[in-house]
Design a protein that fits this description.
two-stranded antiparallel ribbon; single chain; 2 strands; 387 residues; mainly alpha; 20 helices; 1% strand
Amino acid sequence: MEFEVWWLIFFPLAFGLGWLAARVDIKHVLADSKLLPRQYFEGVNHLLNDRTDKAVEVFVDLARNHSETIELQFALGHLFRKKGEIERAIRMHQKLLGRPELKAFEKQSAQYELALDFMKAGLFDRAEELFAQLDDSDLARASHRHLLDIYQQEKEWKKAIATAQQLRDTSHTYQHEIAEFYCELATQSITRSQPEEARQYLQQALAEHRKCVRANLLIGDLAASEGDLAGAIDAWLRIEQQDHRFLPFAVPKLLDVYDRQERAEEGAVLVKGFLSTYPELDMLDAVYDRIVKVSGTDAAFEFLREHLRKHPSMLGYARFLEARAVFASVEDRHDIESVRKLLLDNSRNQAMYHCASCGFKAKQYFWHCPACNEWESFLPARGQVKG
């Protein structure tokens, strides 16, 4: 490639233009920064170093002397709410909302922030009113999410269903939540002794989400309470097709109904079949107790021994030692109980239900996680954690 003389002019010229552009940009930045009070940077520095209290003090003083800084007022209100100073946050956002020079979006933002303040303070009726007024704004979807939280906390399940239906889109259908809301309505109807209304809600739950296990559990409960034992069995057996992991929740109910029909042996065959098909299920205790009742302790112990050889588990062996103690001498029982206790202590985590969303652990199963408020997030087997 031949050397061109004009390149000697081009390179210095390009360098000079770049240097000039950078100088212009720097001048703009410096000019803009001079417009901001020094306290602003102090407050930001406090926030970056997690000194929220100091930041609030600086921003309060800054807002007092520069009332025209709307963005700062918003930031300060948010800080008050984050610190738990709800009354100050409410006053700040009410003051903002009353400013006549606010643009439409700024007014809507102030209303949204004030609704969050009321929600944090537990004043759900006032928060609901403000969120509802934002239906036609850019903040409508965010407001609906908070309304859904409010309706769940207040157990306003019909309003929760309507709001979830408004929120549903391709990214989140809300079918699990809506089905659970119908189950909650059904539970309320059962409490009020209105079985037909409860049954309608449960059918709506299944129409919304055909794999809603809770709906079939409740349908079976309703049928059993009315003496329709065959209907109860049908409802509970449908759970196997929905999600077999929930079968342990239905097994005690099924066995009770088989007993009421004097079909105890048939019930034993049924649960043994479940355990054989799904050995990972948490129903070993139920099967063992059923075999004891139908065939005696010796048969139950042999079944337990054979099952654990194929599918060993710490909780299973703790149960095995409990059963073994029945056949042991008085001298050996103390040693067996010590080993059993050691197994239980080391498998305590396996005896808990885990929320797949937040990891919360509990001894009982929850359809609605009390920690993160997710629905159907608890894994149905004790000791099972999200992979």
